[in-house]
Amino acid sequence: MTALLTFQDVAKSFTLHLRGGVVLPVVGGVSLSVAPGECVVLGGPSGAGKSSLLKMAYGNYRCDAGAIWVRDGETVIDVARADPRVMLSLRSRVIAYVSQFLRVIPRVSALDVVEAAGREGGLSEDEARARARTLLARLNLPERLWSLPPATFSGGEQQRVNIARGLIADRPLLLLDEPTASLDASNRAVVAELVREKLAAGAGVLGIFHDSEMRDAVATRIVDVTRFAQARAA
Amino acid sequence: MSAMGMLPRDGGAPDGAQVPSPVRERDRVRDAPYPERPDPSPQPSPERERAPGASEAGEAGYNFAYLDEGTKRMIRRAILKAIAVPGYQVPFASREMPMPYGWGTGGVQVTAAILGRADVLKVIDQGADDTTNAVSIRRFFARTSGIATTTRTTAATIIQTRHRIPETPLREGQILVYQVPIPEPLRFLEPRETETRQLHALAEYGAMHVKLYEDISRHGHIATTYAYPVEVAGRYVMDPSPTPKFDNPKMDQSPALQLFGAGRERRIYAVPPYTSVRSLDFEDHPFRVQEFTEPCALCGASGHYLDEVVTDDSGGRMYVCSDTDICETRVAEAAR
Amino acid sequence: MSTPLLSAENLTKAYGSRLACAGVDLDVTEGEVLAIVGESGSGKSTLLSLLAGELAPDSGCVRYRMRDGRSRDLADLGPAELRRLMRTDWGFVRQDARQGLRMAVSAGGNVGERLMGMGERHYGRIRGQALDWLGRVEIEAGRVDDPPSQFSGGMRQRLQIARNLVTGPRLVLMDEPTSGLDVSVQARLLDLIRRLSAELGLAVIIVTHDLAVARLLSHRIAVMRAGRVIETGLTDRVLDDPEHAYTQLLVSSVLAA
Fold this sequence. Notes:
- Chain A is an alpha/beta fold.
- Chain A has helices at about 50-55, 85-95, 110-120, 125-140, 155-165, 185-200, 210-220, 225-230, and strands spanning about 5-15, 20-35, 40-45, 65-70, 75-80, 95-100, 175, 205-210, 220-225.
- Chain A folds into 2 domains: about 5-95 and about 170-235, P-loop containing nucleotide triphosphate hydrolases (Rossmann fold, 3-Layer(aba) Sandwich); about 105-170, no CATH class.
- By secondary structure, chain B is an alpha/beta fold.
- In chain B, about 30% of the residues lie in helices and about 15% in strands.
- Chain B has helices spanning about 1-5, 20-30, 70-85, 105-115, 130-145, 195-200, 205-220, 250, 325-335, and strands spanning about 90, 120-125, 150, 160, 175-180, 230, 235-240, 255-260, 265-270, 275-280, 305-310, 315-320.
- The two termini of chain B are about 40 Å apart.
- Chains in contact: A-C, B-C.
């Protein structure tokens, strides 16, 4: 079976034009893949380029060399070269990205934020609303907060809204960048459970989890990015 | 149609000989008494009078009807164009007249350009023949052209008007000349002349309805009572000059030629005889004219446009016809 | 991919020897928000005028897919056709509300004008639609008869949006719609624009110097400098991983985009 996500000899560096064009290498020679049902966790110290890999897979960062193949139904698309419109389409149907930060949308209630994400991901209005309620309940977000805009929520509450938003639709590829950083143990367990359900349904995950408990609960494989960082100079 | 009929009729004009003969033929017909409506001749003075001291030739030292023949021809060209494009405002080189702007300099120039020796002129202001403006313009033409003047709508061949259309239905061959202060109906919404011209050219008249919309939203009905915008011949939207909207229906399919002159704004426009003139409105707020609850206190007529006249210092008032000619005629007939 | 709703090819416009717009290519389609960013004098307003057919380009063309599905070069449309397009299928939200509104005409009249321009002659229906749209842009129904001269800056911009959207346009151009507004008023307006453009599947081209506005509203972004588009792509990619030196400068000059 074709992998959901394949990095093929990917390299990335930043050129800082404002500092005389100094080039900061990030990663090099990255080759890895994520199959359906697999949760690949990126390991290594901070600054090793873990987040950059996720962002490249999401099209948020450019990719200097190599290819990043994402399976879209029967075809595969090279995200590194995809037209912005193709990328937007992939994001709405195929790739979910959950970071530790909720980009706050003013004046929209938590429930609506999650529901809207579901509808963008192709769910019907009723389905989106039902799933949004279920998810927020499972993530223990007090119901009195549902109708309020998340801007005023605590970090942990915002993060749960963000997770609900990322997981509500049935996108087959999940990119999780420390989604549980400010959650307590019981809520982390809920997230782990949600991730395992996605995996069981055939989704693939590429994730970063600093918390070892969380990592152990979901990881099927750990890839140390230090070797890509070493190869970056090459 | 009388586009030709209003060409120079003053045979003594230096350029008269250049007018092709069919026109002159028609002029003769037109200047002849109207067989279907013979002059009610045995009428006393208002019917036809000449200004005291005015000769047939007019005031010495002035050309016939004041304007020089070159200017008249320029104005006639504008008039012809205006007739050819009903409702369209034709620019013309308005001249200084021996009266201030606002006193009808546009109408006076149009009248001067079309006046012939056989014409009989009536001038009204707010429907009345005896107001200052009407009297002075009538006297102006009597002195500068020596033509006959009248207060009788039926006897007149040319009627210059400010603010009214006579109640007596006009007939073929008659010309109604309006004095116009602001010819541009879109001006209140759009101050730029370049833009209003564009709007007319493209028949973009949505903004015109905005004015009516504003009326209804403010007053519950279309409160515009004068200068009520009309669409001429299904094309141009036109300001009928500050006539009350009561008179708008009279413009529609009128047998008479209607000419509009704006002196300060240098525009001439026209409604040829038998042309559709439709007052703008909404489906659910159709155009309606003013209605008067009581008849004229002098002649008893109903269905005429009435003026309110204050009769004393204690709030006494009465409503009388604004059209003095028809009112006096009815009173005279009743007395007989 | 289907034909874009609007596409510009090689748009060039010079004022004397200064190129205000040089060889710009871009396109936008339904449901998509494209931001054009750059500092003042970068040519973004000229570009918007060229796209709107208000300025004629020295070279290049703007093509638009009409409602009948045919793509037409705007230069081939007659003035009547172009203006009809502008007031039915296009909207233009101006930076200065006084240019986009009739300040002496009531809010209802402002919204109703485009309907009347399209031949609607039923007062009740016009007013009904005006009230509906005032509601959608969060202006109370009680203000329907007030002129925008009595409105705050934020309300004026919302009224402009209502006035433009009432005819169900497919393309809306916006020129710095939020500049000069207080931050909280801006947020409300941005949220409204975001919501309406998504709900109605509008194609939006928004010119702004504010990268935060571009990030919040747009899917794609074009960075202009000295009349040229120097970088273009997914909004978050261009802002988070800018390639061009100038874009890096632009991004680093803002406090938090």
